Amino acid sequence: WPSNVLRPMRQDKVKELHLRKTDIFMDMINQKKIPLRPGVLRVIDEAIAAGVKLAVCSTSNEKAVQNLVYTLMGAERAAKFKFFAGDMVKNKKPAPDVYLMAVDQMGLDKSRCVVVEDSGIGLKSAIAAGIKCIVTKSSYTAGEDFTGAAMIVDELGDDPATGVTLETLAGLIGGEVPATAGGAPPVAAVAAMNNPTPPFPTPAPPAPVAPPASKAQNKSQ
């Protein structure tokens, strides 16, 4: 019986610590102590130029996710995103809820979407939702099981000649990137972001994208 009595107390403590961790992380973001991972802004700009739909799907709370994106990417880019967070769904990742909500509310075809994740839990969530997923490993998640990923890379890369591009993502779903921003893009991209994980340059750095997170990407028809 002792464990049954203490369990609610432990759960409350876990929630308290998680909120505290998020507060500390957001303070570091606001102070610009944590940069985006290589290639994130480049791929997002490619998607925006092509008219691709973007969303951030995170296990964190909506306020923290929006603050993260607006601070690291700027208001102009952030305005192009739809936000879906852990406090908006019944079940968090690895359950597919947050991705299914994004697809449903944005009116997307799952077969025309690509998720960009950074962890095994995020990958499982995308797979459970029936969406193709590319994983950008971090030093925190490098040893995790990424079975089922459509592609696994260390980072998106700042150089489009050697890194992942919007064309790369479109290729995962058999699509092509429109030659211009005019007209409806053949693919809709959902950018997924995992729980905020700072990309510190330490033995264990990394981070979503978005961002990551987290960032996922998906293209509309």
TrEMBL record:
Q: What are the alphabetically sorted keywords of the record? A: Hydrolase, Metal-binding
User: Looking at the record's lineage, which domain of life comes first?
Assistant: Eukaryota
Stretch list, region Disordered: 194-221
State the InterPro entries in the record. Answer: CbbY-like, HAD-like_sf, HAD-SF_hydro_IA, HAD_sf, PGP-like_dom2
Pfam families hit by this protein: Hydrolase (PF00702)
Q: Please verify whether the record's keywords include Metal-binding.
A: yes
What molecular function terms (GO) are annotated for this protein? hydrolase activity; metal ion binding
Stretches with biased composition (Pro residues): 196-211
Keyword Hydrolase recorded: yes
Look up the signal peptide feature and give its range. none
Which named protein is this?
Answer: Riboflavin kinase
What organism does the UniProt record list as the source? Amphora coffeiformis
